[in-house]
Write a structure and sequence with these properties.
The complex is a heterodimer of chains A (426) and B (475).
Chain A: E1 2-9, E2 12-20, E3 26-30, E4 32-36, H1 47-51, E5 59-63, H2 64-67, H3 71-77, H4 81-84, E6 91-95, E7 112-117, E8 120-125, H5 126-136, E9 140-142, H6 157-179, E10 188-193, H7 199-211, E11 216-219, H8 226-241, E12 249-251, H9 257-264, E13 270-272, H10 275-281, E14 284-286, H11 304-315, E15 332-334, H12 354-358, H13 361-369, H14 373-399, H15 403-414
Parallel strand pairs in A: 4-5, 4-13, 5-6, 6-9, 9-10, 10-11, 11-12
Antiparallel strand pairs in A: 1-2, 2-3, 7-8, 14-15
Helix pairs in contact in A: 3-5, 5-6, 6-7, 7-8, 10-14, 13-14, 14-15
Chain B: E1 18-23, E2 30-36, E3 39-43, E4 45-48, H1 60-65, E5 70-73, H2 75-80, H3 84-89, H4 92-97, E6 102-105, H5 109-115, E7 120-121, E8 126-129, E9 136-139, H6 141-151, E10 155-157, H7 170-189, E11 197-202, H8 208-218, E12 225-228, H9 237-250, E13 257-259, H10 335-344, E14 349-352, H11 354-359, E15 363-366, E16 369-372, H12 392-396, H13 399-406, H14 412-437, H15 441-453, H16 461-469
Parallel strand pairs in B: 4-14, 5-6, 6-10, 10-11, 11-12, 12-13, 13-14
Antiparallel strand pairs in B: 1-2, 2-3, 7-8, 8-9, 15-16
Helix pairs in contact in B: 6-7, 7-8, 8-9, 10-15, 13-14, 14-15
């Protein structure tokens, strides 16, 4: 694998990762995102509907939390998880946890880490972890890590230190076991940067991890409440400054458009795409504009979109199942609202996704009101495509040195300054 | 009473929409082609049921790719949500759901009676209370046709006076005669006979005389097609096939015969609501499956609408819910056997929710019956559902993968099975049709029974009898 940087602009890295995959002929663009999956499948989507989407990333994210309990099946199958899930052509990255599901704390020991799947807790020592990876044979996988520091609000220095120590120990053990495994020669280990909010520990983690022969870095523990993001962002810059330029930097738990941009500016390359999934699950469609080219129509925004959404936001109960904020954002519209009942326009005008080319807001509204399964399918198609389009626009903006405009456009939408009813996309 | 019924006035001679391509020389099986406003349809045909303007979790593009050319919508559901006015604004049901091929809508009568607690049938129509806003409405023959006119479906059904086949006595006769009168009212009210084909529905329960009378009367009306109704509701299989055979013996050959809602298995509980819905923001806190197993015991969030079947299985509405009742059917059903036998008896069109519904319980249809893919035995079964099946699910996925996915909360698992089960049905009908055209239908039937039951002699007695009655002997 080779990371080629085309340019670096204000901390943002634009480039390509080449020679990826078992055959060495895949490429990934950075900044970019990974296709979010649940138990090896894009949520709600079969191969057919997944292929309806334009711009699906070359690499999909699998989560050990959904797969670890099926270890024996993979071991017997022998042909790797890519073949098992019916995605032999895709690059695969295996993360430890699912960014959407909660991560109960208090279960990491010096010898093991636990994940939670449908069948309950699966405890993994390094050897079990590596045995599972042997059975899965992903292209990339994050090393076993102690990420509990990020689950807690105020972390003690002692705990932060422990998370770094343990994670390095786990990493060294994983690397050792990888050397002994023929099967895993073709897989790449991603080192995990821990340390909570403690700067010294974060720097230590970054420097030490960078000394190991890892293929990339996962920045763990920078997710969480938007209110604490500012502090974490400062730390993020310091951390990425310690990392080699020629290896990709992934971040977990960060997927909102505004937060994505902040992280890209601080040297992050790859993101998870669970945000469009969350939007789908609340019956919403992404409509935020990422077309930052000056456009006279932009000044004729309809403001009526904002009022109702703020009202809705006040009314909606915060769902506690996940660590992520489940409230509706201003990047989306809620198709359950009565005003969409007779709206025969597509979700987003000029969006070329399968949903927008074939269906109307009124139809999606009907599907949601009647609790029909197709609502999830169509919204997922649209939301993924919209989100992947956003990443494309980031890369384009970097190419043409116009990221500032894109960032401003996103910032204004995040704060609700701009109306959300659909601007023209070019 | 029927003799005194008025002859329909304004309907000119109905078009012959069915072209016979081949007939089995022994049995009553026929292969044909329906000429419908949204394109031709080969018969015998299985029509998947897309109740609320959607084929559950699969897109119209997927449905088209499977070769489906006609599917069902339910007038009762659509009439309430989103309502005929909205659908009309959306360019009819075709426009609303973006389905380029044919649609058949039922009258709404059946759901009315089976799903609604307080419905009352009078000569006027069926009076009921909407489960959504509590408003009282009357579904009359005129209103049913009016709604279906707005929906714009290619085939529309008369409003019939539906009575369960387990009911006996004067009510059955009353319902039969009333259905004839309602047929005439539907014909009179139908505003688009050139765009939509109105089918009559033969009633008469399990009484041969009543059914014969109904046949005699209704066939006097020049409608483009006939449905055989009032069956698949709890009667025994023996009674069932005899009524089907009686009906086909008296229906005109040059018009299609639509057997409504076939697929009720003898001894099975009335099917209950299960994995129909994907509900964002559920009380459970955000995780949705469409899967039956994710429903909590006694979970009250279903609407009344969701109880019972949409396709015509119900004996009587279920009284209470429990998780065990929502589990997949534990007997060995063979919906496919019903289809094959009824083709032999001379039926051309079939609908049933069973294949799509059972998919959402994790059950895959195969030539030997069904696979309950959630069961442990499939955990490491790395072959496809059916190696002979050419559907996208079988081409790419293994039983083991589907097993794993079914135990997750990813609804994709259900969609994979829905695709397969529809493909199975359509492939079965194709195979049946080819055998009729190639003059080897009786051999096909024997071979089919062999595969399904391991031996022809193990075929259920009712089916053996039914086949024998039309000249097909299972050795």
């Amino acid at each position: 694998m080779k990371l080629n940087l085309t340019k670096v602009v204000n901390g943002c890295r634009l480039g390509k990762i080449q020679n990826l995959g078992k055959t060495g002929d895949h490429t990934m663009d950075i900044p970019g995102c990974l296709l979010y999956t649940k138990t090896g499948s894009a949520p709600h989507l079969t191969q057919h509907t997944l292929h309806n989407i334009h711009g699906v990333p070359a690499m999909a994210q699998l989560t050990l939390s959904s797969l670890a309990e099926h270890h024996e099946v993979f071991a017997e199958y022998k042909k790797g998880v890519g073949n098992f899930i019916g995605m032999p052509e895709s690059l695969l990255y295996c993360s430890l946890h699912d960014p959407v599901s909660p991560c109960p704390s208090g279960y990491v020991t010096n010898k093991s880490v636990s994940v939670w799947g449908g069948g309950g807790r699966v405890e993994m020592t390094v050897s079990k972890f590596m045995a599972i990876q042997q059975a899965l044979q992903p292209d990339w996988f994050q090393s076993l890590s102690d990420g509990e520091a990020s689950c807690e609000e105020a972390i003690s220095i002692k705990r932060a230190r422990k998370s770094v120590d343990r994670t390095l120990l786990f990493l060294d053990s994983c690397l050792r076991l990888q050397e002994e495994s023929e099967v895993l020669q073709k897989s790449s280990i991603i080192g995990v940067i821990e340390g909570g909010d403690v700067m010294e520990e974060r720097l230590r983690s970054a420097r030490e991890t960078a000394k190991r022969p890892v293929s990339g870095f996962l920045l763990d523990g920078f997710q969480g409440n938007p209110t604490t993001l500012e502090t974490r962002l400062q730390l993020l810059s310091l951390v990425t400054a310690e990392l080699p330029e020629d290896k990709p930097r992934l971040i977990c738990g960060v997927s909102r458009p505004d937060e994505v941009l902040e992280c890209i500016e601080r040297g992050v390359d790859l993101f998870e795409s669970f945000f469009p999934y969350l939007v789908t699950e609340r019956g919403c469609a992404l409509t935020f504009n990422f077309d930052y080219q000056p456009n006279p129509e932009e000044t004729l925004l309809q403001q009526n979109g904002i009022q109702e959404e703020i009202k809705y936001e006040d009314q909606i109960k915060k769902i506690k199942t996940t660590g992520c904020n489940q409230k509706m954002t201003s990047f989306e519209i809620n198709l359950k609202e009565k005003k969409y009942r007779e709206d025969f326009s597509p979700l987003v005008k000029e969006c070329s996704c399968y949903c927008c080319k074939n269906h109307t807001r009124a139809y999606i509204h009907h599907l949601l009101v009647t609790n029909e399964l197709l609502a999830g399918v169509l919204l997922m198609i649209h939301n993924f495509e919209h989100y992947f389009g956003f990443f494309h626009s980031i890369r384009e903006a970097l190419k043409s040195d116009t990221l500032a405009q894109l960032k401003e456009l996103i910032r204004r939408q995040a704060s609700g300054e701009l109306g959300n009813t659909n601007l023209t996309l070019h | 009473m029927a003799a005194g019924a008025a002859v329909p006035t304004s309907l000119e001679s109905a078009p012959r929409i069915m072209r016979l391509v081949a007939e089995c020389s022994r049995s009553r099986a026929r292969a044909g082609e329906l000429r419908l406003p949204h394109g031709p349809v080969a018969t015998p045909v299985f029509m998947p049921v897309g109740t609320q303007a959607t084929m559950k979790g699969i897109t119209t593009e997927q449905l088209d790719a499977l070769g489906c050319r006609i599917c069902l919508g339910n007038t009762y559901h659509l009439g309430l949500r989103p309502g005929p006015e909205l659908i009309q604004k959306a360019n009819g049901l075709h426009g609303f759901m973006n389905w380029p091929h044919n649609l058949l809508t039922d009258s709404g009568g059946f759901q009315m009676v089976s799903l609604v607690a307080l419905s009352e049938v009078t000569e006027e129509g069926v009076r009921f209370r909407s489960p959504y806003d509590g408003e009282e409405t009357l579904l009359s023959p005129e209103r049913s046709v009016e709604i279906q006119n707005s929906l714009g479906s290619d085939i529309i059904m008369q409003l019939d006076d539906v009575v369960s086949s387990t009911v006996t006595g004067p009510r059955v006769e009353e319902a039969m005669h009333r259905s004839v009168r309602w047929l005439d009212r539907c014909i009179a009210a139908h505003r688009q006979p050139d765009k939509q084909n109105l089918f009559a529905i033969i009633q008469g329960g399990l009484d041969a005389d009543l059914r014969a009378t109904c046949l005699e009367e209704m066939t006097k009306r020049d409608v483009p097609g006939f449905a055989i109704g009032g069956l698949s509701g709890g009667e025994s299989k023996v009674q069932f096939w005899k009524m089907v055979a009686l009906s086909t013996s008296k229906l005109p050959k040059d018009k299609p015969r639509y057997l409504m809602g076939v697929g009720y298995v003898e001894g099975r509980r009335p099917c209950l609501w299960g994995a129909d819905f994907w509900a964002p923001l559920t009380l459970h806190g955000g995780v949705y499956g469409g899967q039956g197993h994710s429903l909590a015991v006694g979970e009250p969030r279903r609407t009344r609408l969701s109880q019972g079947c949409q396709g015509g299985h119900l004996g009587s509405p279920p009284q209470s819910f429990s998780l065990s009742a929502a589990l997949p059917h534990t007997c060995t059903p063979s919906y496919a056997t019903d289809l094959v036998v009824c083709v032999a008896l001379g039926c051309d069109m079939f609908d049933c929710v069973y294949p799509t519904r059972t998919a959402r319980f994790g059950s895959a249809l195969v030539p030997t019956g069904q696979l309950q893919l959630k069961k442990k035995q499939y955990e490491k079964d790395f072959g496809p559902i059916d190696p002979e099946c050419s559907c996208p699910t079988c081409k790419r996925h293994s039983r083991a993968f589907l097993h794993t996915l079914l135990h997750s909360d990813n609804t994709a698992a259900l969609h994979h099975l829905t695709v397969h089960n529809i493909a199975y049905q359509l492939q079965l009908m194709s195979a049946i049709r080819a055998s009729i055209v190639e003059k080897r239908f009786p051999d096909f039937v024997c071979s089919f029974m062999n595969t399904m039951y391991g031996d022809q002699t193990l075929c259920p007695p009712w089916a053996t009898e039914a086949l024998a009655s039309v000249g097909i002997t299972l050795s």
